[in-house]
User: What shape does this take?
Amino acid sequence: MPLFQNAVFHTTVANLRDLPQDAISEVAFAGRSNAGKSSAINTLAGRVRLAFVSKTPGRTQHLNYFTLAAGKYFVDLPGYGYAKAPEEIRTQWEGLIGPYLSRRGPLVGLVVIMDCRRPFTELDCNLINWFRPTGRPIHILLSKADKLSRQEQTKVLREVKAELVNWGEGRYSVQLFSSLKKTGVEEAEAVLAGWLGIELPQKAAKENKGPPDKGSPGAKMPQQGQGTRSGR
Ligand SMILES: Nc1nc2c(ncn2[C@@H]2O[C@H](COP(=O)(O)OP(=O)(O)OP(=O)(O)O)[C@@H](O)[C@H]2O)c(=O)[nH]1
Ligand SMILES: [Mg+2]
Assistant: This one.
């Protein structure tokens, strides 16, 4: 079961003043138009049509909020790079996306989605270089991994990882992802759950599990630090 399966559409925000007031933590999804942002949100939520997916680039125009749990959100951002009037792009960036990404308190991290066949376009680099000084983490999804062979996937992953090392510090990570094949979901869930402060089910299950049955393969002395959370 996907970790974010309870995600529901919350609201569309066209003005900064309309940002949800109750947000505790939220993760934004950014990337070129058509890179697969909305598809990635749907895949992580285990849904077909939660976020709007289109063959026509540039269809997500505002900030779309999806509730994961009380006060915890995914935010689907408008894609960049799709030919729009320069004036329109500037207005959207200066009026909404720029201030949102630089000043939104509950924003705990940015997912940058890049088509694995074309990582680090100039516009991706502009966004990343602009966001890095905020000090918040970036997780890169190399999307549409199904379009590459295994060998090509390994190569692009290695190249992008090498680039992240150049950025220094430990705030940046990358993985392959395919909404079509549903690959990379658990890896993404682990990163995003960590950022959002949402407990992974495996961890919760482990913590709530009683001592193993006598004679079962796991029937050893319980290790220190494991077990239930009683007493907290
Ligand atoms: N093969 C393949 N196609 C994908 C994948 N993810 C998305 N697509 C396709 O790519 C196109 C764009 O996907 P969207 O999720 O709408 O992209 P977006 O980044 O939200 O686009 P904008 O909202 O325009 O910025 C659609 O035709 C999707 O079906 C994937 O993992 N594999
Ligand atoms: Mg979209």
Observations:
- Confidence is low (pLDDT under 50) at residues 211-232.
- Residues 8-209 form a domain with the Rossmann fold fold (CATH 3.40.50.300).
